[in-house]
From TrEMBL:
PANTHER family: G-PROTEIN COUPLED RECEPTOR 132-RELATED, LYSOPHOSPHATIDIC ACID RECEPTOR 5/SPHINGOSYLPHOSPHORYLCHOLINE RECEPTOR. Keywords: Cell membrane, Disulfide bond, G-protein coupled receptor, Glycoprotein, Membrane, Receptor, Transducer, Transmembrane, Transmembrane helix. The keyword Glycoprotein applies. It is a multi-pass membrane protein. This is G protein-coupled receptor 132. GO terms for cellular component: plasma membrane. It comes from Pipistrellus kuhlii. It is found in: Cell membrane. InterPro entries: G2A_lysphc_rcpt, GPCR_Rhodpsn, GPCR_Rhodpsn_7TM. Residues 44-293 form the G-protein coupled receptors family 1 profile domain. The keyword Cell membrane applies.
């Protein structure tokens, strides 16, 4: 049952939802996915953000959107340990309401910023491929940067009411769905998924057609362009479609049952495990987006080769320095060995010392 953690003293006592839904079957899966995506997503998106920023400085417009996407995923990956703790506690938030609001705000912003930036990537590639001559000089980094900043601002303003919501026990899990949540789910499905899906699918379809008709592109570049178009659509559908379909199902069930709490709770009991699994799929986008960068940028392989060469040279330099220091230390006689060879000067005997005592003193000094 979500929010079923009870404690005494200074520990948080969670208020359970009205639906007695058990998440035990999905607990291990969710925690494992969150930790794995955090471990992989943080370094992968750090690398992607650095490479994309470097390409943006060199004049790539597409890299501006990909850099914003990587920064967005990087911020979200940093909050995944908190979600793992939340799931491990039986969907009971024990870190205080403000932490829940900030973490949920990052989740919602990342979800729909990723979708908007994927739309921007698709449209930019369509313009660059289908209108290569007409768009020359019009596709600018400044415009891409302003659009990315506007997307961040818009999504942040839309989800700012998260900070005005009370947090009691669970963290933004409404079970069963009420009228307000149903309207919100309808809006998220229509504006946050269905409309962007049409944009992404249409733009990438046009990219594939334009690439196929182009006589100036080599066969290898055509294959890479088509793979990138397919990858964008596949990432979008795999990561975001199941989660939004569950939202639509919950909202439609509320409308169909007229808010009947018993029927809605029975539905939540049936889709509870699947809902958590689909939520985990949205998290996987933090690892899938760096793969998209590798496919979308022509210089990605050269960049990785350069990083590998630099890393190999740095490692070889460290190893050479270590071996040099080791040889120097072996060539230089240590004080212990000098003392063991009895080459240290013998201490001067005190006045009045007998000859036998002088011999024993020399033996002790060695």
């Amino acid at each position: 049952m979500p929010g079923n953690l009870t404690a005494a003293g200074n520990l948080t006592v969670c208020e359970p939802n009205r639906c007695h839904v058990s998440f035990e079957e999905s607990r291990v899966l969710a925690v494992a996915v969150y930790i794995a995506v955090c471990a992989l997503g943080l370094p992968a998106n750090c690398l992607t953000a650095g490479l994309a920023l470097r390409e943006a400085w060199r004049g790539s417009v597409l890299a501006v959107y990909l850099c914003g996407l990587a920064l967005c995923e990087l911020l979200y990956a940093a909050t995944l340990p908190l979600w793992a703790l939340y799931v491990s506690k039986g969907h009971c938030w024990v870190l205080g309401p403000r932490a829940c609001q900030v973490t949920a705000f990052v989740f919602f912003c990342n979800l729909y910023l990723s979708i908007l930036l994927l739309c921007a990537v698709s449209c930019d590639r369509w313009v660059a491929v289908a209108y290569a001559l007409e768009s020359r000089g019009r596709r600018r980094r400044r415009t891409a940067g302003l659009l990315t900043a506007a997307a961040f601002l818009l999504v942040g303003l839309v989800h700012y009411p998260v900070f005005e919501t009370d947090v009691r026990g669970t963290c933004f899990e409404t079970l069963p769905v009420d009228a307000r949540a149903a309207r919100y789910y309808y809006a998220r499905f229509a504006l946050g998924f269905a409309l962007p899906l049409g944009v992404i699918a249409g733009a990438n379809h046009r990219v594939s057609r334009a690439v196929g008709r182009s006589a100036g592109l080599s066969a290898a570049r055509k294959v890479r362009a088509r793979r990138t178009a397919l990858a964008v659509v596949a990432i979008f559908l795999a990561c975001f479609a199941p989660y939004h379909l569950v939202l639509l199902l919950r909202a439609a069930a509320f409308s169909y049952y007229g808010g009947d709490e018993g029927a809605l709770c029975r539905l939540e009991a049936r889709v509870g495990t699947a809902s958590v699994a689909f939520l985990c799929l949205t998290t996987v986008s933090s690892v899938a987006d760096p793969v998209l960068y590798m496919l979308a940028t022509a210089r990605s392989r050269q960049q990785l080769s350069w990083i590998r060469r630099e890393w190999t040279a740095w490692s070889a330099g460290r190893e050479a320095t270590r071996l040099t220091r080791l040889k120097d230390s072996e060539a230089r006689p240590s004080p212990v060995s000098l003392a063991g060879s009895c080459l240290l000067p013998s201490p001067a005997p005190p006045r009045g010392t007998r000859p036998g005592a002088l011999q024993r003193l020399r033996e002790e000094s060695c």
